[in-house]
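Deliverable D5.2: sample structural annotation.
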Amino acid sequence: MNQYNALQAHFDKIYDFQHLGAICGWDEAAMMPAGGGESRARAMSTLGVLIHEMVTDDKVPDLLVGAAAEALDPWQRANLREISRAVVSASAVPSSIVEKLGLATSRCEQAWRLHRAENNWSAMEPLLQAVVDITRERAQILADAFGCSPYDALLDEYEPGVTSAMVDRVFADLKGFLPEFAAQVINQQAAEPVLPLTGDFSIDKQKALGVEVMTALGFDFDHGRLDISHHPFCGGVPDDVRITTRYNTGNFVESLMGVIHETGHAMYEQGLPADWRRQPVGEALSSGTHESQSLLMEMQAGRTREFLQFLAPRAQRIFLGHESNDPAWSVDNLHRLYTRVERSHIRVDADEVTYPLHVILRYELEKDLIAGTLKVKDIPDAWDAKMSEYLDISTAGNFTDGCLQDVHWPAGLFGYFPTYTLGAMTAAQLFAAATREVKDLHGGISRGDFSQLLAWLRDKVHGQGKFLSFDELMLGATGETLDAKHFKQHLTQRYQQRT
């Protein structure tokens, strides 16, 4: 296996540079002083070009051909498949485009942190225009290479095999279901008032609760850490996972749910196959699969009554200094709080009923941006129109809570947004299967024991890396391919049957 071994050694080196890039990206978001921005942008762009040139090295195609003729085991064969996929995609795009996009996104993302806080769309517009222009150029190159639409070429990078036609069908189904369902739930919950929570919600105390919950979920602090950033995220590499959250001293729920969400991402990374995590086959299967792991922890498990039975006394001790009989801190009131459905501006703070509508809005806008039928200058008006249509609220003049609220477009992540809702559907289906197969799953959650759930996920999802296709993984874990019925059944059970 001389050819295969040489290929694997080459991608081992690529992984080391990707590792450095991941940590630099985390540092840029969480630690870097503002004055380091331009220098970091150049360094990250140079690193991106270097990795691109290593993936497209002239020797790689010959090694692929030679390795394909060698006797390989199933994991090696799967790794060869994933290497080939990475090489074909990278080879289609010139290094000059990679460099331009790297510089544009670094500058735009850094500026976003400032201009979002200032509600300054006019300053962001030309920076975002540069990102969109280069992204469209890159998308067209990929589309020409793979015989698909430019947007589908971008979508395929995050969710292999999924097309916008498939997403359109799923989202049309949800658009037909969610607005009326949300209105019914909001009207129903109007008769179920939530008692306000009071206590010392200082950042130190919120972090203490977050760390306690992360430990219960199974996060390995020997190979990861929790920090603060403008936008919660999970970064780093499996052996050094970095997650962040942001704190609101008036409401600990936002931070805690962000921590649980990112911990779900992190535990997927920490559970990837140890023998293969330096190779493409050892990576997470797709963005939607990744999102399913965060939403499974945050939404499926983290908002159950059982989880709140575990959480309530711990939150009381941290924020009040003692356990309390205050009805505001009861499991029933916490459950009403954690499952409150409201029309709101901010996607990351949205409930699971309205959240897909936020995603559909962004998907439709970014698809039009890539197609050229929506201009960057018209984003605020288009955003406001869809917010009014889908959620009956306006963002006119409110760029901070409107089209500047997300980091994704400044960071060049076009084609990513649909994976959030695909992940929600996947999470519901996986959790339903885990509930059937894991003995006393909900009892364990009520005791803060997630070990059985985590073991099931390690076996069915995390440890598979990219060895299986998405359909194969779902068939093995749940007995069927992805079906939106599980997500709708979950919402109906939780919000109309109140379990």
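Annotation notes: Residues 2-30 form the longest helix (29 residues). The first strand starts at residue 224 and ends at 228.
The annotation will be released with the project's public dataset once the embargo ends.
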